[in-house]
Structures are given as C-alpha cells and as structure tokens.
Amino acid sequence: MINNTNRENIYRVNRHSNLKEKTVQKFLTDHVYAGKPGWNSFLKIFLLSLGAGFTVAGIVFFFAYNWEDLHKFAKLGLAEMTFVVASACIFISKFNETTRSIMLTVACVLVGVLFAVFGQIYQTGANAYDFFLGWTVFITLCVLISDFAPLWLIYIVLVNTTFFFYSEQVANHWEERMVFLIHFCLNTSVLAATVLLQKIKTELHIPLWFTNAVAFAAAFFATGGSIIEVVDYDEGDLYIVLLFVLLIYGLGVYYALNKKSIFYLAVIAFSSIIILSAVIINAGSGAETFFFISIFIIGSVTGAIGALLLLHKTWSHE
What we know:
By secondary structure, the chain is an all-alpha fold. The chain has two domains: 34-173, no CATH class; 176-318, no CATH class. Helix content is 80%, strand content 0%. The chain has helices at 7-15, 21-31, 36-65, 72-90, 97-122, 128-138, 140-145, 149-169, 176-200, 208-231, 240-259, 262-283, 287-316. The mean pLDDT is 82.
C-alpha cells in the first residue's frame, strides 16, 4: 500500500481513500502494532537492562556499606571478580548480540568501580579529573568496537565529566564561558558526526533518542555559556559564545527544516528564548523589566508552541 508504514501515513491514506475500517485495522495490526514476539523481545531487553543496572548499583552500594569491614584484598578481589564475570559473559556463545552489548556496558561501568576501589584503598591522592580520565581511556577500545548506543552515551558523559573536572581542578584559570563553549563544541561535534555517519553508511542505525540526547546536551551548554557571557560581559569583550551559538543554531534550523525535525526546532527555540530573557534582564532593572520579561516569556513560548504545532500539522499532511 505504502512504503513508509507508520501510523500517521496509514491514517493519512485512510482520510483520502475509501478503505474500509477493517482493512485499515488489519494493516495496522500486521505492520505497525507490536505483536507477541515484539513484546517478548522488548520485555527481555528491558528486564535484562534493568537487572544489569540494579546489579551494578548493588555492587557499588555493597562496597559503600561494607567498606570498613572488608580487607583491602577482599575489596580488590571482589571488584576484579565482578569485572571478570561480566567480561566472561560477553564470550558466551549462547547469548545474543544485545545481551553481549549489555554485559559489555556493565563491564565498562565496573572499570570505574575498580578504579574507585583502588583509589580509596591506596589513597592515591588523584583528582576527580584523573579518575574519570583513566576510566574514559581504559574503556575507549570497548566503546569503539561496540555498536551499542547506551555505551556510547555513557562514554560521552564520561568525556564531558572528565573535561569539566579538568577545567575545575587543573585549568581553573579558564573563563567559565569558554569552558561552556568547549562543552558545546564537543557535543555538537558528536552530533554532527552521527549525522555524517548516517549519510555515509546508510546501513548504520543510530537511535533517534541518542541523537536527541546529544542535541539536548549541546543546547544546554550553549544556553549556559551564553547566559554566563551576557551576565559577565565586560566592555571591549567580544560575544564569542553568542556569535558561535547563533551560527550553529542557524545551521541547526536549516537542518531541522530539511529533515522535518520538530525536536531540534523546539530545543533551539526554547534555548533562544532563555538566552534572550537573560539579555533583557541584564539590560534593564526595576519592576518594569520583570513585567516586560514576563510578557516576553509568555508571548514567545506561546508563539513557539503555536508555530511548532502548525509545522507539525503541515508536515503530517504532506
């Protein structure tokens, strides 16, 4: 009937054709709605992920609660044993690829637990930056060979955390707005890389939630860096962060309109509203400023939502 078999397309065809309701319902059941095999697969993955997450949390809390009562060799031995067990499960042939990827993710998280236990036992005196840097470096190879989006997301979080603590503990002379700008560039680069990879390798499937999470992180750092620059602006300085954010947001709007992505447009719109609100508050003072900013926020948010709904309706009927 149609190539892109999603619910909206089927409803669109139904509105402009004389298909019977039973035919549409059968097509939805066969091609859109999840059947028993789909639900079984979802529950297996969900419960396995939930169990793996609770297991890792249990290991962490076990060490935290029993720290004083355990000998240092017991601490290291237990941490290493859990890592070895998780790693061994990756090579068990009866497990499918998803299960192995989840166990690889557990093993990578346990690397951090092992580093933390070692650091606490021997009081290495390392900064938080050193801890997260070591964790990031030692799981890099596993992340590169994996095709598992949750593990990549954890890795990106670790990279951001490492750089944050580096700027706090080592490069503490850096301006805060520049730290946010580097965070923004880092996450934007990851987002751009995912877009390019999907164009170069069409068979590569990158989940939408992953790109949305990275885009949201980039927008967060863009918003925070722009606000800091506005508040801490000194005469003679250049609005480096604001200019760069404006450039990237312009490219983002162009890409979102071409790909018909409401999410990107929404993130950019509300980030821009927050930045403009900071500019207005910083420019004025007194009760009239707060009255104006209230009117501006209500009007801009209402206008943005209305425009996004109109775009979504227009794209849905194409």
